[in-house]
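Attaching the record inline, Q. Sequence:
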Amino acid sequence: MIRMHSLFAIMYNYRMLRIANQWKDYACLEAGNGEKLEQWKDVILRRPDPQAIWPADQRKGAWTKADAVYHRSNKGGGSWEYRKKLPESWTVSYRSLTFRVSPTGFKHTGLFPEQAVNWDWMNDLIRTHQDEQLRILNLFAYTGGATMACAEAGAAEVVHVDASKGMVQWAKENRDLSHLEDKKIRFIVDDCLKFVEREKRRGHTYHGILMDPPSYGRGPNGEMWKFEKEIVGLIDACMDILDDHALFFLINSYTTGFSSIVLEDLMKTIILPEHPDGTVETGEVALPITGSGLLLPCGIYGRWQRK
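Structure, as predicted:
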């Protein structure tokens, strides 16, 4: 029994907490009572966050300075209450990248700032291996934060796939705002699994694959996606297009109820047998809360990286 415990201590010792603390145009000011208060350059937004369940006194301090508040509806969805006139959209920058942000009807802003920790990781890897002419595939690519980070780092090609035509158009705007028009970025509106299967038939491979699959979703032709039912098949399909000289594989998830151990087990049972020349690291992503010094958990990640 002692040997078994020691073995598990060795096998499961790579889970880490990654904190997105390098922002200058964004800050999580406060969090609690199921909400978070964020500053996006000069605009302060207050919106729901299911992880922030600890108590907070929202009658004073920065909480009273929100320019807009998102209210959930009992019938689903919700709407914004604007306490001052705001532009329809504005920009924020992270390092050399610039993104358009805008309050949407689903409480989102078009950007997940906590993902900067993954952008930095991929950016550093790609810069170190630019001579390898890396081809990168971004699945469920949304408005393209990771796409821009990989392209800016010097990837030979980045393929950006998302089922939403509107999000792909938003990503193109972010490309232009970041002055990456000269980079080879392919924008594709498609169901991610179907695209991966077609790439296998075409014989295309990628040196880096990243994905941020939703808990639930629909493809452009009504294809149903449910994380716990589809994720294994998608990762398995990606093994057919992950190049023999691949550099990385990244999975990010916001699905409630799935721990980083799940991602670690998935990657060790699906990716490592195919690519044993790498290591797996999993953990949580978080944002620092400037007002309280606490951390706001923002999902989990799993990384395979070539040794």
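The CA atoms of residues 103 and 109 lie 5 Å apart. The chain has seven helices and 17 strands.

More tomorrow.
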